[in-house]
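Newbie here. two chains, one complex. Structure please?
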Amino acid sequence: MGESLQPLGEEEEGKEEEKDEKQAKMQTHMIVLKEPFPTIRIRQQHLFDPSGFPYSRLPLTSCLLERTWIFTPGANNNMASLGLSYDGCNFFRQRLVLSTLSGKHVKIKNIRFKDDDPGLRDFEASFIRLLDKVTNGSRIEINQTGTVLFYQPGLLYGGSVEHDCNPQRSIGYYLEALLMLAPFMKMSLKATLRGVTNDPTDPTVDLLKSTALPLMKKFGIDGDGFDITVVKRGMPPGGGGEVVFTCPVRRIVKPIQLTEPGKIKRIRGVAYSVRVSPQMGNRIVVSARSILNQFLPDIYIYTDHRKGASSGKSPGFGLTLVAETLNGCFFSAEMSSVPQGQGTVLPEDLGRNCAKLLLEEVYRGGCVDSSNQSLALLLMTLGQQDVSKVLLGPLSPYTIEFLRHIRDFFQIMFKIEVQKPLEDERKGGDKVLMTCVGVGYSNINKTVK
Amino acid sequence: MERKEKKQKKHQQKHSGPKAEKKKVKKQGASKEEDERKRNPKAFTVQSAVRMAKTFYRAQDLKTKKHHIPLVDRTPLEPPPVVIAVVGPPKVGKSTLIRCLVKNFIRQKLSNICGPVTVVSGKKRRLTFMECNNDINTMIDLAKVADLVLMLIDASFGFEMETFEFLNICQVHGFPRIMGVLTHLDSFKTNKTLRKTKKKLKHRFWTEVYQGAKLFYLSGMVYGEYQTQEVKNLGRFISVMKFRPLVWQTSHPYVLVDRMEDLTDPEKIRTDPKCDRTVSLYGYLRGAHLKNRSHIHIPGVGDFQVSDVVFLPDPCPLPEAQKKRALNEKERLLYAPMAGVGGLVYDKDAVYIDIPASHVNQQQEEVRPTTELVQSLIDTHATLDAKMAVSKVSLFSGSAMLDSTDGTNQSREHEGLQEKPVWDSIMNRERRKVIFNEDNVEEEEEEEDEEEDEDDGFSGSSDGEDDDQADEDENQEDLVTFLKEVRVECEGMTEGHVPPKKIQKMDKGQREVITEAPAFADSEDELENNKEDDETWEAGYSGHSSTKNDEESEEESMEDGSTAKERLKNQTEKESEEEEEHGTLRWKEGLQQKAADTFLRQQEAAPNLRKLVYGSVVEAEEEEEEEEELGGLFRVSLPQKSKKVQANTPDCSRFTPDTSHNWDLEEMLNSIRDCFVTGKWEEQQDASTLLKQDEELYGDFEDLETGVVHTGQAAEPGEPEDEEKDEEKDEVQGKMNNDVEEVQRNRRLEKKRRLKERFDAEYDDGDATYFDDLKEEMQKQAELNKAEFEGMDDESRVQYEGFRPGMYIRVELSSLPCEFVNNFDPNYPIILGGLGSSEGNIGYLQMRLKKHRWYDRILKTRDPLIFSLGWRRFQTIPLYHIEDHNGRHRLLKYTPQHMHCGASIWGPITPQGSGFLALQSVAETKANFRIAATGVVLDLDKSVTIVKKLKLIGYPYKIFKNTCFVKGMFNSVLEVAKFEGASVRTVSGIRGQIKKALSTPPGAYRATFEDRLLMSDIVFLRSWYPVSVPQLYNPVTSLLLPPTQKDSWSGMRTLGQLKNDLGIHNKPKPDSLYKPIVRAKRLFNVLHIPKELQKALPFKSKPKQQQPKGKTPRDLQRPSVIREPHERKVAALLQALSTVHNYKKKKIHTAQHAKHKHFLQQKEKQEEAQLKRQKLAQKKRYRVMGQMDQKKLKSSLKGAPKDD
């Protein structure tokens, strides 16, 4: 660890474990964070105040967030390294991920500054920690109240990483970002994430496994060690799940042309139940099938009942449904029970609602699942300087913001064309054809021999 | 003889008979080879499987060796001019060659070569010539951008170092095409030497470039020019040459600047002459797509962010496609703003070239400096005309379609007069507001600043718009505000393909509608939705939900800024339309209708997606303003959700479903029926149609067992049916007719052939290899790339894919150092090299480096070195290291002589695999080779792991058996604690381990060894100490130096240079000095042997009286005897006698000895003879005995039967 870093007393025990892994990474600056947020410490007071610097404002868009370009003097005044500034903690992951990939530093101000409990939440801090673990040489600075974050990305390092994800958000929250970063690391990633595997707010691990992985395979990211395995399931609020994500490293990403989704040929699913009666799973399956059977006979929903060590700390159940098309596109929907102590859900209702969600997803259509839109767009952006096309369903707000961020970080704009369904066509709503020319990104972290 | 020959019969070819038949068949039918194979199949069988395999492998090897990795062809349709760098040492004829070539291509003399010169060389090719002076900085920069290098070599002198240096630079940065040109060939006296020199030079050139590289000979000068024919040939070569794509060049955008203008406010310069300059640079974009606001590096200056890019009409366009062979005079264009062409106006701001009147008639006006502006306007109008001719523009919703003709007619008239007021009235207020991105704002700023030098195209387009506005002015009075919108719209659609549409005029009545509009638009469910969705969503979807007309909204989103007013107007307009359609019924209908509505709504919202996503400035700015206005007064009580709240909503990627979709309803379910395989299929994919097709092809068959003939259904109308009909007809017509059979047979054959073809296509797949597939894939991608944005107009195309190579662009940079402008020298190339993402950052680089074998010194670690890497030239401090077997990077003090080693530097992040070269200095031109090292970037990492060997030494101070206390190695207990368990060693090779620290003395420790140590032993610990790479990154800013000193940039000096310059001499270590060797005498103790032992020893080993024979003491010395003369005589006699006696005795003895020898010989002989005799006797005896025995045996045998 760098000499500038004086480990603080309380911090030391936590860091001892990581020490061994990090020895190779010499200059990583660790952030000094501790779990409940008010105890956040600053290592350095704020690097700069934008008002003191020559910065020009980008006249911008209908978007409500303010973006500012900051010029910071690099090591030499000759290297004008450019940064971006944002307000508020929304789209936190997008910003940090894009910053890491583009090498531009980012400053996020006014994070919940009017809140009763201002500053970064625990799960965001946990996310920053994770980011710090997979990168080398990142500089992360947080002010005393946690309302301002400065992030200067290092190089993506990868390797074997273990992380205890904060149970406020499920592992999907962290995994979504890792999926974007993993192919561009120095060494192939093997991340062991612990925490909540399935919760109602974020895309669950099962969903990502069944939709994001096949999507990434289309971009040429595949091979032996490309997998997500759910070792233990953990439901909110207790968590206790464990997921292993492994991903090989790629130097370049292939451009894709995904304009024809094809017809859905089969529906698969997993009905999981943890620390509840195993009958729950069966009840879910029956109710979900009752709706989906109207469309397709080829439906198989596995029941995954866990008990003992692999079942985490809290009870719960849920369903993930995946529809596969002839052209290898995947749509999925999921639903899980509300956390213990916050209400009750009948498994029958859950099954039915989840099936309806899947129908909704099918209605939206496109070639990419709605929760993976941003991943697909990112990989298109990072492709070679060739035209990539993908057909999406209606853009989710998250994706829209992601597109704006892509423009900020990579200066890439997508051509957006709306395809309306024909008069007598019964294929759901209108689709959006996204076209872009990649930036010609190549993985600068990978070593050549 | 001849007669005889003539008499010979001529060969007559047979025209009939069996031979002729045979031949005929041969000619028509199967080839000879096949025939032979048939006739003699054994000769063509496999003789040896192994050999066959070998030949096959070899053939495959040779085939695959020819393959290159297929790349996507990204060359633009209209490629930028080819950059031709003319390189060579001074006085070799570079400028002359360029002059001759330019003259050859455009029939015009260019007296002064200065900066890049672009000419149109043919129908599809333009060339940019750039002369490379002898400065190594220039050589490096030009090698990076050149497509073709003309390497001039003075044949009368031979190769010079510069040539080789340049070749090596090229090798590192990707090898462009290189063509050698030998000059000064007329200086050779004899033809033989000339030939010899040519050959020698050619072969050397070939070893450097490649075998068979083209070398041109320019034989002599005529009136100071090369011979026309030779130049023509060279020109032909150049204009048909093909170029290989170089990795760095194709992956980075770059511009070779051919024009520079300082846009800084003169007032600012007056007050502060050293202020940073705003400069616009012009040139053709090459390589990859350039994005606006991206990072660029100018070699010799530094890194900058592009503040604005615009594309301009091509100043040197290729001729329009026409079917003719040569260019006509008008099309032979020359573009070289930096060069001093005749009649040149070289201002501070701009350069104008005079091209003779025969080429372009407009140019005449240029003579008068006052008309420059007009000139530029005319120039640009021409291009606008072309644009306008194809496009029809409606200025704003209230106006009629604007035809290209009326606008231009008027504009021509009013040009000079009307333009300014329009500008002035609008600019000041409007600028900030309307324009979407900063590009335009700055454009206009610049225009304002520099109205004088508007000679480029983009301003022309806006001029045109102004004129249009002027027209409108005449019609409508109050429209200053209005004009903004118009102008903006215009900008967006200079080539807009806008269909005519219903238009309503904007008036106050409309504004009222605006206020009412929401009441119409918002139904209940919509409000619900909006509540639920977050605000962005709301702003987008509900805001634009009611847009009806796709094209319009799309086009609206295309334009980069439209005022809010107009947007609102459009909205209301459409809303009212919608209202008409759906009416109030919407409220009363049930759920079903609602679902349909939402569906519709989404449909309608969709066209606005682009705007929703990327937005327009106006909205954002207006919102801001609003906030500011209200902010002071009502900040707290704002009814809307504040921006901050929005900014802090939880970050979740999940897309909440549309609540209006009720999946219990049959209609909803039906709306997605066809998404499943069970649903209806498209026409061409439908299973039944596919089946039919199959039947049609394979349908006819005869079941051999049953004899039933199945015929395919002739359901499909068209050919098959006809065929069958034909068949039937044929049948009817007559079996007697032979022709019919023939026809039928042919038909069957035809059918069979088709079937086979189809089958082959399906199952054989040719012999498509992986390589072919890959190539095909690339080809497809290239086609797609070309096709995707083809029809789009450049303005919008530029936004999606960036500025494409081949465009002539103007790049504005905001804060260039003033030296760049003040010390500008057009002879030095200015290159704008685009940087990829994160290439603008700085970090540690690990590279593989090799000292150049022609560089005469080795390089020292931590000596500053100038690298040329990527676009950049910079000085940095490398550390050299080598990888040990266990993967450890061990620091080296010097680079190895003939080996690669690793180097780590602190420098700009550059993709792995890019090559670099290193120089020790760029300042002086030395006689010897300047390139110190070359190599390649391997890895980028934030941390370095170079280690240096460190031996810690300690001394034992207490020795127990194998345990030992060691001191002097460490200073404190803590230090020891860190090394507990480390292995140590003594000089004599005894190994041990550190056990534990001792309390006193500090730093002492206990260690155990495999053997007992001596007090004289030294204990040492081998350890590795990490070394940090010094963080120096010092860009070579050679372009900022004054013109005369541009080649004398010097950075940080090496330690050696510093000492040399300051006259510091290291004092040698006193230990290293030579001194006379004084050897101390060694004293040995006496060896004592105990008496008992002495006794026991054998005599040989007993100590003798070993006193050295010194001088015998006097008393022991015996006196010498001195004889009397008589005695002496006696003694002599006795001596003589005894000698004689001795001789005699010796003689007798020898005789005796010989005699005895003889005797012994005799005796031996006798004995031998005796032995022989004895042997004979014995033999005889044994023989007799044997005979007797035999007899006995015989007799006994004989006797036996008798006995029986």
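Moderator note: The two ends of chain A are 27 Å apart (CA to CA). Chain A touches chain B through 122 residues (CB under 8 Å). Thread marked as resolved.
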